[in-house]
Specification:
The protein has eleven helices and 13 strands. The chain is an alpha/beta fold and 332 residues long. It is globular and about 55 Å long. The structure holds nicotinamide-adenine-dinucleotide and thymidine-5'-diphospho-beta-D-xylose. Residues 7-8, 10-14, 33-36, 38-39, 58-60, 78-82, 97, 101, 119, 121, 152, 175, 177-178, 184 line the site of nicotinamide-adenine-dinucleotide.
Length: 332
C-alpha cells in the first residue's frame, strides 16, 4: 500500500487522520473533499506537498470519484454530513452525501478492486438507558434515531452488502464522540468553549444528563489506521476510549477550567429524538489489533482543547454569529 484516498479529509476527524498518516507512515494521501461549510483548508496547511494533494469534488459525483479511486491503493471514507441538529432541520444533504456518496464510492472500489475502510458512528445502535450495564458491541442491533444516524446506518448496510454480494474488501469502524482541535463550533464542546470566550453562558439541551463516550480525535485516527493496516476485510470494529460523561459534567468542567462558576450555564430546548446514552465496548479492537488510546485524561484533553480554541480565534470567529443565529432560531 503506497497511496490512500481520504474522503472528507478537510473535515474535523479526516484532517486529523491525514496529519496522523503523514506523521506515522510513508503513505501518499489524496484528499477528496467537497469543502462544505464544515471543511477547513487551514486544517491541512503545512503538510508536505509531495505527499498530500487535495481534490475538490463531491463524493456523490461518480466521475471524479472513479478517477481518484483508480489511482489509489485503498480508500478511507470520512466524508459525510455529520451534525444531528442540521439533519433535523433538513435531512436532504444527509441522504445525498451519506447514502448516495457511499454508494458512489462502493461502486468505484468494486470496479477497481480497491480496499475500503468506512468510518461510521456508534449512533447507528440508537441509545442506552443511563442505568443499563451493557455497552454497544459489534453484535448490537441497529436502531438509529435521527436522519443523520439513519443515513450512517444505511451507509453501513450498503458497505456490508457490497462485501457479501460483490466481494469488496471493506472494513467498518463505529466510533463514539470525538473531541479535539479543528472541530466545527456547531458541535457541543467547541460551541460551549467559544460561548464562554464570548461571554455567553453554555447552552445545555434538556436535563443535561445525556451521556456521551468521549474520545480524542487522534485516538480515533490511530484506530482507523490500525484497522486499515491490520483489520480483517468484512469485519466491523467499535472504537471508544472508556470516556463516558454526561453533558452537565462536561459543561461544568469547561466552566471551571475557564475560570467561571460551575453553574453558569442555561438550559435550552431539548433536541427532538435526543439519544440518552452512548457507550462503546472496544474489546475487539484492543484484543485483535492491539490498539490502545493515548489520551486517558479527559480533563487534560479538554484543557488542551480550550487552549487550542483560545489560540485559533481567527479560524472560528467568522462562523460564530451564523452558528449561534441558527441555534437561536431553534430555541437552543
Ligand atoms: P465534519 O463535518 O467535520 O467533516 C466532514 C467533511 O466531509 C468535511 O470536510 C466536508 O467538506 C466533507 N464532505 C461533506 N459532504 C461531502 C461530499 N458530498 N463530498 C465530499 N466531501 C464532503 O465531520 P467529522 O466530525 O470530521 O466526521 C467525519 C466522519 O466521522 C463522518 O463520517 C462521521 O459520521 C464520522 N464520525 C464522527 C464522529 C464525531 O464525533 N464527530 C464520531 C464517529 C464517527
Ligand atoms: O449546544 C449544545 N448543547 C447540548 O446540550 C449542543 C450542540 C449539543 N448538546 C448535547 C447534545 C448531545 O447530547 O451535547 C451532546 C453532544 O452533541 P453533539 O456535539 O451535537 O454530538 P452528537 O449528537 O452526540 O453526535 C456526535 O457524535 C457522534 C457527532 O456530531 C456525530 O457526527 C457522531 O456520529
Amino acid at each position: 500500500m503506497h497511496r490512500i484516498l481520504v474522503t472528507g479529509g478537510a473535515g474535523f476527524i479526516g484532517s486529523n487522520f491525514v496529519h496522523h498518516v503523514v506523521a506515522h507512515t510513508d503513505l501518499h494521501v489524496t484528499v477528496l473533499d467537497k469543502l462544505t461549510y464544515a471543511a477547513s483548508r487551514e486544517a491541512l496547511a503545512g503538510l508536505p506537498q509531495d505527499r498530500v494533494e487535495l481534490v475538490v469534488a463531491d463524493v456523490a459525483d461518480a466521475a471524479p470519484v472513479d478517477e481518484c479511486v483508480a489511482r489509489t491503493d485503498a480508500v478511507v471514507h470520512f466524508a459525510a454530513e455529520s451534525h444531528n441538529d442540521n439533519s433535523l432541520d433538513d435531512p436532504s444533504p444527509f441522504i445525498r452525501t451519506n447514502l448516495i456518496g457511499t454508494f458512489t464510492l462502493l461502486e468505484a472500489v468494486r470496479r477497481h478492486g480497491k480496499r475500503l475502510h468506512h468510518v461510521s458512528t456508534d449512533e447507528v445502535y440508537g441509545d442506552l438507558a443511563l442505568d443499563d450495564p451493557q455497552r454497544f458491541t459489534e453484535e448490537t442491533a441497529y436502531h438509529p434515531s435521527s436522519p443523520y444516524s439513519a443515513s450512517k446506518a444505511g451507509s453501513d448496510h450498503l458497505v456490508r452488502a457490497w462485501v457479501r454480494s460483490f466481494g469488496v474488501a471493506a472494513t467498518i469502524s463505529n466510533c463514539s464522540n470525538n473531541y479535539g482541535p479543528w472541530q466545527h463550533i456547531e458541535k457541543f464542546i467547541p460551541r460551549q468553549i467559544t460561548n464562554v470566550l464570548d461571554g455567553i453562558r453554555p447552552r445545555v439541551y434538556g436535563d443535561g444528563l445525556n451521556v456521551r463516550d468521549w474520545i480524542h480525535a487522534d485516538d480515533h485516527s490511530s484506530a482507523v489506521l490500525a484497522i486499515l493496516e491490520r483489520g480483517r476485510p468484512g469485519e466491523t470494529y467499535l472504537v471508544g476510549a472508556d470516556g463516558e460523561r454526561n453533558n452537565l459534567d462536561v459543561v461544568r468542567s469547561i466552566l471551571t477550567q475557564m475560570g467561571q462558576p460551575a453553574d453558569a450555564w442555561d438550559r435550552v430546548a431539548d433536541r427532538a429524538g435526543h439519544d440518552r446514552r452512548y457507550a462503546i465496548a472496544p474489546d475487539k479492537l484492543r484484543a485483535e489489533l492491539g490498539w490502545a488510546p493515548r489520551f486517558h485524561d479527559f480533563e487534560q484533553g479538554l484543557a488542551d482543547t480550550i487552549d487550542w480554541y483560545r489560540n485559533h480565534e481567527a479560524w472560528w470567529r467568522p462562523h460564530k454569529d451564523a452558528t449561534e443565529a441558527s441555534y437561536a432560531a431553534r430555541g437552543q
